[in-house]
Amino acid sequence: MMVKRRVPRCAIVGIGELAPIRYTEGTTTLGLIAESVRLAVADAGLEKDAIDGLLVGPQVGETPQHVPATVAEYLGIQPTMSNVVDLGGATGAGMLWRAAAAIEAGMCETVVCVLANTNERSGNPRSPNRNPIREFDVPFGASGANVSYALLKQRHMAEYGSTQEQFALIAHWARKNAQLNPNAIFYGKPLSVEEVLQSPLIIDPMHLYEIVMPVAGGAAFVVTSKDNLPSGGHAPVYLLGAGEKITHRAVSQSPALASAPLAYAISAALEQADVSAQDMDLLSLYDCYTSVVGVTIENAGLCKPGQFGEWMKDHSFGHDGDWPLNTHGGQLGFGQADLAGGMSHIIEAVRQLRNEAHSRQIPNARLSLVTGNGATLSEAAALVLGVES
Fold this sequence. Notes:
By secondary structure, this protein is of the alpha/beta class. It has helices at residues 29-44, 67-75, 91-104, 133-136, 145-160, 164-178, 193-198, 261-273, 290-299, 308-313, 330-334, 339-353; strands at 53-56, 81-84, 111-114, 201-203, 206-207, 238-246, 282-284, 367-374, 379-386. It is 33% helix and 12% strand.
């Protein structure tokens, strides 16, 4: 009997391994990761710039969150696909097929998969303060999201002359759209531009109502193949395009606003879907802070860099407007349930495309751009979702 074998499409081309030692002294997990990657890339005969995919393990010792971004920044790479794989002793094997799947999906071409850890002597626990961000940013007060996103807003205002009123308009529209969503945390609580500007200045130039309010909540979605669609179910919402990019972790290492990772991610998603931003019926844009929305609008090519404020003055962003934007209220109006807050943008896009948004339904919605943002405009993902006409 002849066995039918799968045609191989991906291969391991480089390896790197450090000799085990009993205890580590004066080193870090990030340092071990970097040396392992250096050896593997050299063994492959490549330069590090050829690496556009990154898979790492959980809890790399120095950082409990934003692990791929921290590792990527330390390595000096800007991957278009990255993830944490957490399968215990099966993590290495699980990484290999995930790397191949990402390559076959067109998200990247060359992935480095790396695992490493230190082993401290008894009584000398791992220090939680070895994250590079604590060396270059925290000592100067750049600690936490409020500071970082305020710096980005300040940078936009300094470079382009954007105004407080223009940023406040983003928060106003989020609250306005939330008035048609009974599930929104700020349902029944509209907000004017003047009220945004009169709210407390949390950190110059960021006002209280320009910042998401953390809440509890959850969200989930189910994905299957086109050949496995449930019979008699909802209209399927297809993933037509996706893009992803990491450029840095610490705000001190961020690129120019026009080169934020969202610019690449959005462009890649639109190109994969063979559509343009102007084709979108819904903009479902991540909005933890008003500064993120302004930059995202510009990165999407809807207006020139520095012009989001003037562009917004010329358009309407409700479900019945010419540019529906975060019709569920966005996180600024709906609430941010930690990571589930970002997922709310996907949920709303699906509702709109399935024609199930009730009083806030966009007429004949067929395409939506969805974005996600992590760290400080550091980790970006973009999706184009659509339904069959």
